[in-house]
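cache lookup: miss for this entity combination. No prior model stored, computing from scratch. Input as submitted by user K.M.:
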Amino acid sequence: MSFDIAITHRLGQRTIAMQANCDARLVALFAPSGAGKSSILNMVAGILRPDSGHIAVAGETLFDSAAGIDLPPARRRAGYVFQEGRLFPHMRVRANLLYGCHGEAAMPWQAVLDFLGIGHLLDRWPAALSGGEAQRVAIGRALLSGPRFLLLDEPLASLDPARREEILVVIERMKHDLAMPILYVSHDRAEVDRLADHVVAL
Amino acid sequence: MTRILSPEEWEIVALSLRVSFVAVGGMLPVSFALAWLLARARFPGKLLVDALVHLPLVVPPVVTGWLLLLLFGANGPLGRLFEQALGIGFMFRWTGAALASAIMALPLMVRAMRLSIEGVDRKLEQAAQTLGAGRWRVFLTISLPLALPGVLAGLVLGFARSIGEFGATITFVSDVPGETRTLPIAIYSALQMPGGEAIVTRLAIISILLSLGALVASEALARRTAGGRTNHVL
């Protein structure tokens, strides 16, 4: 089972709920903007605590309100790629990539650099990167942290069409090359149709 | 240089620097902890802590000096505690001048640090957590470096306030040459003396240079730590 998730969470006036129980490699969470998609990723990553339910990814229970399980985010080993990249502005690209560097990463350092084409960016500051470059570095940082699964939060949203295609290809390759469940959030039907094995609509 | 100032004047400058460095250095951990608490924590009585921290900024310095006298004087509860537990006396001593400076500098230091801690993007801290960093690593590698310009600003403001401190100090520990006669108090004393204008001019110039020096040094430091971003202390 790649994803076994059933959670509810109240945010202000709204209740966010999600159910997914499937063995697909790439599960897309599809909903219009503002439906609480990012909140769900935050709950899977451990940044936000659901009111109730359970979250298990690739056979490991990360959260279970009934059993009192709530792994801290640092121990969930989620490769979280945020919509805005969230590169650390006070560190060069190299230090950003090394921040979570984990010995058990599925892809070693050089392979990640080659795969994403970011080897020439190592000495740059995040402020000096284009949107596409920043997003590739963010993906690289997540991959190098030795994740057990990937959470991708609208990784194309801040990019122009040419860059989108570049990142889409990267994501397709990650899906095929890495044996890692991916939870992909998007509000774009075409993206979801192209990438997803399983779609959860909110 | 030694010809520019007399030995007594050098003593005043050295004393002022010692008082200010001890005051600001001692207050650095205290003010950062308070700034962090006020920026991040929610607890009952927060408003009271906030008000107490700001008290020296709004109360007349003479009143602050008088309160210090009540609390830390020879018969004050805290004064006795420090004397007995640590052997530190404040009355008519440079330590008292440092304490008065520290209390007067505290609100400015806390304000600057608090602003920059509030400006740290919590989302970056979350990103660090998902990359496997625990609380302390997140604090040391993300929160603290990003708040550094505010910490530097707090140090500069605190130092400037310390070097200029007059009212609370003279009320609390009076004007004792070699112990509590810091630059502002020495300038004031010299103004009372006939023919003291030359001393006043020299000490005033020194005061201005010290404050400007601190400002320029911290700006330079902020730029060096900024990397690709623009950082300003003030």
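stored under new cache key. The interface with chain A takes residues 123-124, 126-134, 141-142, 145-146, 225-229 of chain B (CB under 8 Å).
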